[in-house]
Each structure stands twice: as structure tokens, then as C-alpha cells.
Amino acid sequence: MRILSVSDSDITLAAEALKAGLLVAFPTETVYGLGADGFNPAALARVFEVKNRPRFDPLIIHIARLEGLELAADLDSLEGEARKKTGLLCGGLWPGPLTLILPKRGAVPDLATAGLATVAVRLPDHPAARKLIARSTGAVAAPSANPFGRLSPTRAEHVRDQLGDRVDLILDGGRTRVGVESTVLDMTGPVPRLLRPGGVPREKIEALIGPVDIPGPSAGPVNAPGQLKSHYAPRTPLTLHRPEEMAVLEYEAGAGCLFFSGESRDRWLRGIPGAGPFPGIRVLSGGGDTTEAAASLFDTLHELDRLGLFRIRAEEAPPVGLGPAINDRLRRAAARS
Ligand code: AMP
Ligand code: MG
Fold this sequence. Notes:
Layout: E1 2-4, H1 8-19, E2 24-26, E3 33-37, H2 41-51, E4 60-63, H3 69-72, H4 80-93, E5 98-103, H5 110-113, E6 118-122, H6 127-135, E7 139-141, H7 156-163, E8 169-171, E9 183-186, E10 193-196, H8 202-209, E11 238-241, H9 243-247, E12 255-261, H10 262-270, E13 281-285, H11 290-305, E14 311-315, H12 323-334
Parallel strand pairs: 1-8, 2-8, 4-6, 5-9, 11-14, 12-13, 12-14
Antiparallel strand pairs: 2-3, 3-7, 4-7, 5-6, 9-10
The structure holds adenosine monophosphate and magnesium ion (MG).
């Protein structure tokens, strides 16, 4: 495995590698992706192998520009209203952390979509990612560059540490800006369905296209890992707590606490006799902002996971903005503990 920069010449090199069927991890605004040429079944098969990802779990195809959408998706087979809404979303929220589920084109291998008649497509808001995709085949499958079920990578070092030589190249673009995965929205039914909360808040989507459905736990087959109960998990067992519970936790040496805001940490500290130090205490956003908290979520969990704690206690985020995406990740991280 080689780590490259996001210089122009390194991106060109990485694009050639993709075209040759190699796997290239690269930064997007959400998390680092494990990229493979979206039209190359052998390279796609390696993505599943390297991540140890079940074959029933379809990949997101990343494109470089809006015109590239038709490489993977067949918009003509969408019903009129859905097509109009798709246009509004692409125009208003792309490039950005929004993945759309659309009717699939024949050119996309079944492996990429786990045999479904639909395909997941996203136009990332990251200059290096888009250059890389544009210089390869224009359609790059890229799930998060981590072993299946583990913490998503927000830095090149996370990819190196978790995948090592199982990946051919890593483009190092520093820490990712949004920090949680894309919102996944299914456009193929009568009403758009939000399959996974993510980097674009529901409010922003509904402001553009009106109400979306949020399928309940009983709504049909699992077709997104966002819907698998255990996911995004650190090695350290994690428990999720409401703010009221978090405020009155007793201090336990060797346990970590992940507070949502500086205010909630201070409230807890006021109830603790003595002044620390408390090595495993972290705050997602000093000012209690859900966008800032999402950006530091996986980064902070990676950091806590390296401290050898016996448990991490995490505080729920408020259910606004990117709060639902944060709570979704924390709930699934807790599901295996
Ligand atoms: P990841 O790339 O690991 O963040 O996950 C990609 C997400 O998109 C997963 O939740 C997938 O199951 C979901 N996804 C991809 N393709 C489809 C599809 N055709 N229908 C529904 N969900 C999909
Ligand atoms: Mg993932």
C-alpha cells in the first residue's frame, strides 16, 4: 500500500490505478471511501472481500459531475413527480452528502447493486474526489474504507490502520469535513423514503421536495447497512445515554465519557468531587452544534478506542440538524456492546 497526496499528479496516478482495477481509498466530504471502478466486476468483488462486506449490501456509485448521473441511473424510467423531485435535489443539494436511489442502468454490474434493479448514486462535494472520478471512468463505487461494521475512517491514518496492505493506494486529504456518511434517499417509490439519516438533514430535503417517509423497523427487507442493528462500532463497548442520565453518572476510572456539548460536560463535572484529570472525557462540540459534533464523531471515537478503556458512555445528541445522523451511528455502535 502507498499513501499519496491530493496533488494533481498523484490524483492522475490514482485514477490510472482505478482504471487498472486497483483499489484506491480517497477522501470525500463525508468519510474516506474505498474506491473501485464502478464498471469493473473484478474490482468490485475485491471491495467486498477487503471490507468483509456481505454481498447483499449494495455500494454507492460516486460521480464527478451532474451529467455523469446517466452513466449509472436511468432517469427516464422514473415516474414524473419522482423525476421532478430528483431534479430539484440534484440541483439544490449536489454536490453534497446525499445519496439517491434510482432505477439502474444495465452497464452497472449486478455486484455493485447486490442484484437490485436500483442503484445508489452520489456526487461528492470534494475537489480531489471529483478529479479522481473524472479522470477514471466517471463512476467509482466507494463504500467507507473500513472493515464492515467498524468505525468509519475520517483520516487517511484510519484507513491505513484498519485496512493496511489490503488497499493499494490511499489519497491523503486530511480530516474529512462532514464526518458522517451521506443521507440515503430512495426516489423510486410514490413518496421518497429516507433509508439512512446522514450528512444532509431531513429538514433541508423536505424544504425542497416536501415530506419524505421514514420507514419503521418493520418496513420490509433490510436493504441498507444503515438498517443493520449493529454497525459503526468501536472495539470498546459503548452505551448510549440520555442527557439527564449523563449529567448524573458516577465517575468510573477507566471508563470514557463522550459528551455532546461543553455545557453537558460542565454540568456533569459540577457533580463530581475532585478535579480530575479525567483522561477519557471528550466533547463533540463545545458550543453544542450538531454539524460540528457530526464532524468530530468518528474521529473522537477512533481516539477513545485507542485509550484502552473498558467502556465508552456516549450522550445522545438533540434530534435536530445532524443530531439524528449522530444518534443513528451511536445507537448502532452500542448495539454490539
Ligand atoms: P456505505 O457506502 O457503506 O456507506 O453504504 C451505502 C449505503 O447505501 C448503504 O446503506 C446501502 O445499503 C445503501 N444502498 C446502496 N444501494 C442501494 C439500493 N439500491 N437500495 C437501497 N439502498 C442502497
Ligand atoms: Mg460504511
